[in-house]
């Protein structure tokens, strides 16, 4: 997979969306080499289980025999750029398997990218699972 998450020499919304889609595509393809290029060296995430994961943990999870995604869809995505920081929020649906266990999740997410070395790098992720009937807003 060729990784080209930015077409311009300055940070912007379109380049940020391109980087976000490149991360999604690499996750769906299980392409750890592309993920290594897209993820910031200081990447960390807060998983659905509340675990804090760094870049190496994610790369190991998506390596041979690890997580396999069949679905990664997003909707209601909001994109904001503040200088060299890009923030995406929205709703996501993911499904796949990990070590022969199938999973399916609907989540609200916040993804933060930073502009480094002339391109957007995936820096931080937070996902919260939407449990039908459990939210105050009634959606899910």
Polypeptide structure, described:
This protein has three helices and six strands. The protein is of the alpha+beta class. The chain has one domain: Nuclear Transport Factor 2, Chain: A, CATH 3.10.450.50. A six-stranded mixed β-sheet has the order 2-1-6-5-4-3. Strand 4 (85-98) and strand 5 form a beta hairpin. The longest helix is centred in the first third of the chain and has 17 residues, at 13-29.
Structural class by SSE content? alpha+beta
pLDDT averaged residue by residue = 88
Q: How many strand elements?
A: 6
Cα-based radius of gyration, to the nearest Å: 15 Å
Strand content: over 45%
Binned, the helix content reads: 10-25%
CATH topology annotation? Nuclear Transport Factor 2, Chain: A
Number of domains: 1
**Strand/helix succession:** HHEEHEEEE
Instruction: Give the N-terminus to C-terminus distance in angstroms.
Output: 34 Å
- CATH class call: Alpha Beta
Number of helices: 3
Level-2 CATH architecture: Roll
Rough outline: globular
* Strand order in the sheet with the most strands: 2-1-6-5-4-3
Key phrases:
disordered N terminus; 6-stranded mixed β-sheet; Nuclear Transport Factor 2, Chain: A; 140 residues; alpha+beta
SSE inventory with pairings:
Elements (H helix, E strand, L loop, with lengths): L12 H17 L2 H7 E8 L5 E3 H7 L6 E15 L2 E14 L2 E16 L2 E11 L11
Parallel strand pairs: 1-6
Antiparallel strand pairs: 1-2, 3-4, 4-5, 5-6
């Amino acid at each position: 997979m060729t990784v080209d998450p930015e077409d311009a020499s300055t940070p912007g919304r379109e380049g940020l969306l391109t980087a976000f889609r490149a991360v999604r595509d690499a996750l769906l393809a299980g392409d750890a080499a592309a993920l290594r290029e897209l993820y910031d060296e200081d990447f960390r995430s807060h998983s659905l289980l509340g675990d804090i994961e760094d870049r190496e943990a994610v790369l190991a999870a998506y390596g041979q025999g690890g997580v396999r995604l069949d679905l990664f869809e997003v909707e209601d995505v909001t994109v904001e750029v503040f200088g060299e920081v890009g923030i995406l929020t929205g709703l996501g649906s993911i499904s796949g398997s990990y070590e022969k266990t199938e999973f399916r999740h609907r989540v609200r997410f916040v993804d933060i990218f930073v502009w480094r070395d002339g391109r957007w790098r995936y820096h931080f992720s937070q996902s919260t699972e939407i449990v039908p009937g459990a939210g105050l807003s009634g959606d899910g």
